[in-house]
Each structure stands twice: as structure tokens, then as C-alpha cells.
Write a structure and sequence with these properties.
The protein is of the alpha+beta class. It folds into 5 domains: 213 residues, Rossmann fold (3-Layer(aba) Sandwich); 188 residues, no CATH class; 221 residues, Valyl/Leucyl/Isoleucyl-tRNA synthetase, editing domain (Isoleucyl-tRNA Synthetase, domain 2), CATH 3.90.740.10; 41 residues, no CATH class; 63 residues, Ubiquitin-like (UB roll). It is 32% helix and 18% strand. It is built from 29 helices and 31 strands. Strands 22, 23, 24, 25, 26 and 27 form a 6-stranded mixed β-sheet that branches. α20 packs across α21 and α24 packs antiparallel against α25. It is globular and about 100 Å long. The N and C termini lie far apart (72 Å). The model has no long low-confidence stretch (mean pLDDT 92).
Length: 955
Amino acid sequence: MTETFKYGAALAADIEARWQENWEREGTYEAPNPSGALADGSGRAELPKKFIMDMFPYPSGAGLHVGHPLGYIATDVYARRLRMTGHNVLHTLGFDAFGLPAEQYAVQTGTHPRVSTEENIGNMRIQLRRLGLGHDTRRSVSTIEPDYYRWTQWIFLQIFNSWYDERVGRARPIAELVAEFESGARARPDGRAWSDLTTAERADVLSGYRLAYASEAPVNWCPGLGTVLANEEVTADGRSERGNFPVFKSRLRQWNMRITAYADRLLDDLEPLDWPEAIKLQQRNWIGRSEGARIDFTVPAAEGAEGNGGAEHAVAVFTTRQDTLFGATYMVLAPEHHLVDAVVPEAWPEGTRPAWTGGRADPREAVAAYRKRTAAKSDVERQADAREKTGVFTGAFAVNPANGERVPIFIADYVLMGYGTGAIMAVPAHDSRDFAFARAFDLPMRCVVRPTDGRGTDPAGWDDAFVSHEAEIIDSAGPDIILDGLDVPAAKKRMTAWLERGGVGEGTINYRLRDWLFSRQRYWGEPFPIVYDEDGIAHALPESMLPLELPEIDDYSPRTFDPEDADTRPETPLSRNREWVEVELDLGDGPRRYRRETNTMPNWAGSCWYELRYLDPRNTDRLVDPGVERYWMGPRDGMPLGGVDLYVGGAEHAVLHLLYARFWSKVLYDLGHISSAEPFHRLFNQGMIQAHVYRDSRGFPVPAGEVEERDGRWYHGDEPVGRELGKMGKSLRNAVTPDEICAEYGADTLRLYEMAMGPLDVSRPWDTRAVVGQFRLLQRLWRNVVDETTGESVVVDEQPDEATLRAMHKAIDGVGRDLDALRFNTAIAKITELNNHVTKQPRVHREVAETLVLLIAPLAPHIAEELWSRLGHTDSVVHRPYPLADPAYVVDETITCVIQIRGKVKARLEVAPDIAETELESIALAHPVVRGALGDAGIRKVIVRAPKLVNIVPA
């Protein structure tokens, strides 16, 4: 018997290659726009639209392993289902190609980052194509292409040239703010007229409003790498993730995005989004909105304090517990606080305790030494509650505005500049961290909230602070304010009003969210379209000069320094190309010399807006055609803020990428460039494909493919190894490539297996041995349609029997609902059930065979196309209407009803699904078995749950 037409690896490979070429040749997955360059005459643009997206990949040199395509296959299945239900579907994939890995490789090998990145992209395109993904390849983008990052730079300039007008709650062009200053409609805080300001002074004023601005900012500075690091690149113990170098807190001039202006809108607009609640909660917590009060503590002039000038200083604190102001016994500034140097005196004041000085005779030395130690710690370390509290007295005192008491000012690492004002009033009796610090430094405590747990009101005998938001306020009375006897909410309200009347504070809202640090000291990123004149004033390049392309350089490494030298400063790779940095330009006022910005944008920049470029990737005149954007992403019923219909990706991007993209969308929306105020309406987080990691006695991973199981243990050669479940990856030596599975079973089998492994949002372990199960499903399906000897169709043109019709229509109904809900594993189970039913029949009926092919087409498109063709069709299954279920066959003819007496099953009935409760009760009571079991006993109660249960309770 010949095996020419037997479905095996060779035939699968042939089928898949042929259909992939056919799809590409025919433009099967091209989604037309309603107008513009990608419009066509197919009529699809008149259909209801769906925009389906994946979080796009970084093109790693290691290529894909089988864990990477999980989400891509899922969105492909869903997109195919939508095409078959009459939608114009936009589904494509690009590459987030700027970033640190390519630059690291360039430093190590001298290979230009573009070269290695483009090679990696080419390899990944081949791997993705082999999976049969139905992407519109015309729309694919790469963030490293100048035609793409031209528009990234253009968006940056829109943000740079905008400000947030709180009066109207949206961004406006900066030119409108200038016009308000010029006309006097908006007064300057110092009262000076706009015309009286110098050019530099005007630039400083505008910088305080711009949504993109440069300023001195606290950063993670890593001398050993010669670059500033993002928070996610710093380990919990304050070292660089790459190289394990110490990371210091330092202040450098950096570009920032004023995302904080949008904090409330970013919070409020979460509500209508169809996102997992856990992701919404993470964003709410990251934004961290809290209501409280700003309170100003006065610091009297201290002789010899640096920059003091003999003047008083006001130290503002933010607190959510203004009701406890009378309990404040000391203050703490973050070591980075800008007023630290200004308040430190020349000598310790009389009465300074030895424990407060850090062992230094000079307060300035004590403060400098402590700040240096703190700079080497991460924010995570500084916030660790279990750590011993450290700090040092500044030698200065502040005045509590409520009672006029002088309270000592400390600096301590548990206070961060990243929250509130970087200064706190310490109420140790009612805050656990303050309590621990006060105990460590023998500072006074005062109870001002009456404990309700019987501990008494003397903190000297307490083990921890008493924290309550409902108890009674005590010992809180001043000359013109009394809080005693009030509960906490009432005391907060009274204290806030008193602060505002006295001009020493106000009710305010604070956010944990900080402005977005937008600079990187690297080569492989988007250049800023900014130049500086001889006065250091930043100027935007005109749109005609975009894109500003990266120059060619020989050395991609930032300059590194002594890893322990926190006082060094970065030297970026771009700064060494003087011909590129120093330029003569005419920006409208004649040729002048300028200096380019030598930082580059972070890798987040290109992913903040790529959904928009997918819509109109060849538009050279504008970011996106307004009509095209409105068609694909504009607001509509159920999507009041617009956005992508479905966005699939990992939960690890819950905060940063998603928050940044939302911010950019809102600015572009405010400025009228797009109609969608949100980028992604529906978000789905897929789980992770995990794999077993095998480690030798040293704890090093060994190749998983070389491990054997013997008598319940695992061996690498003759050495026993341990096994654990973890991520799949090259470093853990457990990666399985999709190429391997495709070569042995075909892409359709890989697609089915990944979708059948379990619910899409749950992580699951990879098991290569289990892949064969889905291969056998396809083999059985093939044999149900094709004669393996002749290759001819074996179906018959006869009417199926009723049982088969019921099985078929139930499958149509169930599979369709499962695909719509992204329940791909249960959809495959239903297809398998129908296929097994067909296998047991003496003949395969055409209607059933064609239905099976159409049901499996979104999941296994190659074999579906081949079988559809062998069934005599000349059109593609991709746009074939999805089968419709006949309701008459979906509903079961009868349902089994259980009859119980005293909770025990006595009989079963076959009844109609829509039987009435009264009729079911009558039938059950008349059943011979029931009558015999009851005998002469009466009936106390009959519980009927039609059509499945009758429970009889005898008297």
C-alpha cells in the first residue's frame, strides 16, 4: 500500500508551504482601508471592522522558542474566526527593534546594531511565516526604520510644544500659552510682564509648563556601565541587572514627560476599558491617588547654612493624616531633597544627642556621608520595612504651625523624593515607620488618637504605633483650633480649613506617579529632534528636518568609570561624534551654530504609538489619515474612548508600556490628531508556556533534550540532575523551537497543541511527547475526507442521520461560542468529539465533512485549505462564511431527569428540555418505582428543578 497521500510530516510540510505561498500571492490577509493607499475594490472596507493586535516582539538573536508564539497563534485564530463571520480584520505584527541587547552585542562584536537587528528580524519573519499567521504584511513596521521613527520624533515634538491647561482639562499648543502671557490673560507669578523677560527667562517659564521638558532629575546612575538605568534594570539590592555593578542615585539633566498632568484622566478612563481587573488595579496603585493636605513647616535662618542667605525656608510636606499634626515630633527630608544643603548649619546646636550625629563633629560632614551611603541603595532597599532605620540629624529645626513647637529635622533613607514632596512630618505614635525611627533615635512620641485596644495613651509602653482612621482625636488643641473629641474624618476637615485660613497649607491631592524619565545615555535609540543654542536654550527641529537619523559611529560603548565613583557623569556615544553634535542650522532666523541633544529616547518610545502606524504605514504626509484612524479605532457603541478591539500580551507590561501608550494617545487626542482617547479597548493577558529546567549538582542548567528519566529520577548521562518548572529560554537550556515541532509534525499540529494545552490566560508546562495527540486528530480528520491511497475525496452526497446532524450542529454552536470567548482548548475538544463521531460512521457525508473543515480552519488553516480544495472548492476557507447552527438540532430531544427520595436516587426519566414543573412532578409521582418506594407514606414536600431533578420528601 502506498503512503503517498498519508498525512505525515512530509505531506504537512508540502501542504503548508504551498498554501503560505498562495496566501501571499493572493493577498489573502490584506485588510483594506476605507480610503488612501491601502484601499482596494474588494468591498471588505464596507464590512464591520475589527483591529486585533499582539504586543510586538523584540527581535532577539536567539529567535523564537515555542513559548513566544502562544499569543500570536491565539490572535490569529480569533482573527480568522472574525473574517469568517463577516468582518474586515486588521491583524499584523511589527518589531520593537531599538534597545539595549543589540547595543550590547555591538559593543562586544563591533557589529552595527542595525545589522544584527535586521538579521534577527529576517529570521523571526521566517519563523512566524512558517506558523501560517494571517498577518497583513504590508502593514508591518520596525521601530528602527527612519520612516517610522520620523513620526516618533514628530510625536515627541507635539508633546514638547504642548502644555496641559488644567482649566479645560486637556493639552493645548504651547503657542496658545505664549499668547496668554503676551496679552496678560495669564499673569506671571512674579508679576513681571512677558515683554520684560529675556529669551532665556521665557524659555525657563515655558519649560515649567511643557509636557516634555529637560530638568535636573534623580536617576539611577551606574558608573560601571556608563549609563543611567531605568528602575526595571536595577536589582532589588541596588545593582545593575547587567554586570552587577553598583547603582547610585544622582541628579542629572534629563528629558521628562509630564505624565503626572494626566493622572486623573488616566485613572478615570480605566473604567470603560475592557481590561482584567488585576491590571486596572496595578495601574491605579502605580498612579497612587491619595487625598490629604500640604502643610508648610517654617525653618528659621541658620547661620552658615549653604545658600541660606539669612532667609527662612518653608518645607512643604504632604500628609493624608493632617488630623495628627499636633502629634508631629520631628521631620524627615529625603537625602536628595533640594533644601538639605540650605538648612544645615556650621555646627551642631546645643543639646544635640550623640546618636543623632552619625559620629561626625560637623553636621555638614555627617549629612554628606549619609547621603553618599544612601546613593548606593535602591528604592526597594530603602523602603524595606524589616530593615533597621537609619538617618542623621541635619542640625536644623522646623516650627510646627499648629503649636509653634520646634521639631528636629533629620534626613533618612526611608523617605523618597519619588513620593509626595520628599519631606514628611513624623508622627511616631501613629505611623509604624516613624515609630521604629523614633525608637532607634530616642525621639519623643505623642499620642493624639485615642487607642481603642486598651494599650493606654503613653507610647513609651507600646510595641508599635496605633493606626486608626475612625478613633477619637485627643490632646490636639492650639490657640485657635481644637480637634479634641472629633473623629478622624471630621478632624481632617477642620484641620484642612484651618491650614487654608492661616495660609500655611491647603487640602490637596497627591499621586505616587512621577514624571516619566525619557533619556538614555545610549546609541541605539531614537535621536531627540532638539538642538541647543549658545545660551543652552532648547529648540525643536522643524518637521522638514525629520527624521533626524542616527549617525554612524565606531564606538557604541558609553564611557565607563570606576564602579564605586558616584560623582562621575555620563559620556554618551553620540557626544563623541562632534561633526554630528555641532551643526549650523537655519531654524527661521538665519544660520546659527547649535549643539544636538546627545541622549537618545528609551526603547518605550516606539511602542507608545505603533498601533496608529499599523493603520496607515505608508503615509508620508501625516502620522495617520484621520478617516482611516476613525474607521479602525474611533469611538463606537460599547467603546466610548475608542481603541484597538483586542490587544493580547503578557501581564508584565501592566504598568509601564500600557501607561505610557495611554499617555501618548491622550496628548494626540487632545491636540486633535486622533479620535481615540485610549489606545487599547480590550486587553487580554495570555499565560506563559513553561518548561522543565534540569540542574546539575552545581546548580547549572543542562540541556533538557539530553536528560533521560530512569525509575522516576532524571539523569544527564550518568549524573543525576534536579528538575524544576520554570521559564523557557536559551539561558536555561530548555528551549524548544517551533522549527523543531514544525519539522516533525507540521505547523498546524503546533498551533493546535498550543491552543489545546489549557485556558489561554493560564501558564502551562510544555510536553513535547503530548504534541502527537493533536497530530493524530489531524490524521483522523484527513482520513475522514481523503483516501490515503488515491488522494481522492471519500465523502458521499447523502443526508446525514439525525444523530450526526445533532452532533454537527452542537459542535457548530459550541465551537463558535468558544472561539469568540478565546476558549480555544474547549473548542478543540468539541471539534475532536465531532471528528470521533464521524470516524465511527460507515460513510462520511459531505455536509458534515465540509462543516468539520470550516470549524477547524481558524485553528489549523493549512490542512483546512487543502481539504476544502480536495472537496472540490476553488475559493479559500479564510473568507468563507462560518457555519450556522440550526437551533432545532442544538437543543437535546430529551434530558435525563433524576428522581430522588430523601436525597437518594430512585429512578430516572427521559423528558423534554422545556417540560413544565407541574407536568414533571406529576410524571415523577406516578412512576411505579416511586409509588413502590413511598408505599403508604404521605408526602411532605416535592422539590422540582425542571428538567433535571425531582426530590421527594416523605411525611
